[in-house]
Write a structure and sequence with these properties.
The strands form 2 sheets. This protein has a 3-stranded antiparallel β-sheet with strand order 1-5-4, with helices on one face. The protein has helices at about 35-45, 65-70, 75-80, and strands at about 1-5, 10, 20, 50-55, 95-100. It has one domain. The chain is elongated. It has 3 helices and 5 strands.
Length: about 110
């Protein structure tokens, strides 16, 4: 399973500037259809054993920008887009990956 990490959903604003929190994480529901706890609870409820979990960075931090925001960037800004000091959103995990297997859990 591989999807966008829900942690980023409480934020708004331009990622190359200071991120702004617009709501608490728990308020991401119902607009966000799942949270990490929802994924894990569904897997264990289906008798799946979680083997591994990883929170991953976006390979290219332009991921955090809308197309409209991205085309405003000049070459210098695009060259440093993966540096969290210049794009604070690049410091956050973008994806969550959970590996689970159907078996008897120990």
């Amino acid at each position: 399973m591989f999807d966008i990490h829900p942690f980023n959903r409480p934020f708004m604003g331009e990622p190359w500037k200071e991120p702004k929190i617009i709501k608490p994480y728990k308020a991401t529901m119902p607009h966000c259809h799942w949270r990490v706890q929802d994924l894990v609870n569904a897997m264990t409820g289906a008798r799946l054993c979680i083997k591994e979990m990883a929170e991953l960075q976006a390979v290219n931090a332009s991921f955090w920008f809308s197309y409209k925001e991205l085309i405003k960037q000049d070459n210098e800004e695009l060259a440093i887009i993966n540096q969290w000091e210049h794009n604070p959103m690049a410091a956050l995990p973008a994806w969550i990956s959970i590996v689970a297997q159907k078996e008897v859990c120990r």
